[in-house]
Predict the structure.
Amino acid sequence: MTSPTAPVRVRFCPSPTGNPHVGMARTALFNWAFARRHGGTFVFRIEDTDAQRDSEESYLQLLASLRWLGLDWDEGPEVGGPFGPYRQSERLDRYAAVASQLLDAARAYRCYCSSDELEVRREAARAAGRAPGYDGHCRELTDQQANAFVAEGRPSVVRFRMPDGAFTWTDLVRGDVTFPAGEVGDYVLVRANGDPLYTLVNPVDDALMQITHVLRGEDLLSSTPRQLALWGALGELGIAEGPLPEFGHLPYVMGEGNKKLSKRDPESSLLFYVEQGYLPEGMTNYLALLGWSLSEDQDRFSLQEMADAFDISRVNASPARFDLKKCTALNADWIRLLDGPEFVARLGVFLREQRGMHLDADGVDTVRVAAALVQERVETLGQAADMLHFLLVEEADFAVDPADAAKLLTVDNHPVLEAATGALGELENWSTEAIEASLRAALIDGLDLKPRVAFGPVRVAISGRRVSPPLFESLEILGKERSLARLESAVQIASLP
Ligand code: GLU
Ligand code: ZN
């Protein structure tokens, strides 16, 4: 790979609209890894110039999401830096100044066309087989014409004057990309009400913040010729100092059925993974695979390994498929890799933060003892929490899953539950081994049942579900009193017709 010569400065610059999604997280990760790989600076900028759509809640979620993923930023909100502020809503004076400089230099002009007029002319262009972009109507207005529009009370937008000619750049991911001459029309930088648009603020800040590499999703490919052109103008006006940044467009992320992963798919939201108890290690590992890999034969690698090895020229240009099953399986690997105490600690945080459970000292002890029973069996912390729920729930709130009850707490199984209750009631030494011996004697030997038939109803009675941690250990941890109470109420349920 070729290493950048100047110090690397990359940015992650989402708009705080709605939930952070996995595509965004992938963009953040690749920028972060590129910065770390080259000893550069990872800038986090918030593009919140659209007051209608932006929200404080979403802004806070963005910060929390990057922190959850473990992607630390060198400049940005709550961290500061030499090019701040890093929220565009706090930089409006800069954009206004740049817009007037562009107007003064005639690199931009005021356009007085109404949207109805534009629509009519676009239709006509389409019908005549001409390019549908802005037709340049106001490009060369005389002062007199402009003044007449103003006198009419017409509002005006600020449009950038696109230079003639084709646009070509060598994309870090896609190689040479060309937009032929005439394809990109003059575009709006500032709305009639004075609000600056993404088309202006994004390249202006990239210039002011001395960004050297722009790594972002392929959906933004068509804005690149416009931004290159604007950078050119900013350079001529002395607003941009350094050379043009290099661009790399990361591949689309496809969901089910090879459609672009949509915001409506639940698995597209990063919060989904936080709430289900995926590990950040698993998530960053899987996100990395959406376009990159450490090597052909190694799917599992840590964030640090990625940072050490990341090579933008090895990012695959073809669309990546988001496969929830693969993501989950990888997460399960990462769960098994945690050492015992770390798994307990993560589970504790998950129970508190995602399940709102405030465990007392006994609860903490229970988790510590029981975690080992489930660590190998779950793919997410959420599954672990579900499996251990029966141990942590207040006795009054314990309930058997209705479907599992209907299957196993039946009249047919009534004798099994009675025999188990009787045998365990007499047990003095409440240990896993003694519990197992007593249940085997009562049910397998005593009632001549197969283990599956014998233990299924007992499992549902005490854990509430057909899937649980190992039964005898579970009984030991639950304790004699609670186990018997649950068995007795299962006997009641099973005696109902
Ligand atoms: N705020 C833009 C977005 O979220 C940033 C795009 C870019 O990286 O240039 O789509
Ligand atoms: Zn116009």
Notes: The pocket of glutamic acid (ligand 1) is lined by residues 13-15, 47, 202, 216, 220 (CB under 6 Å).
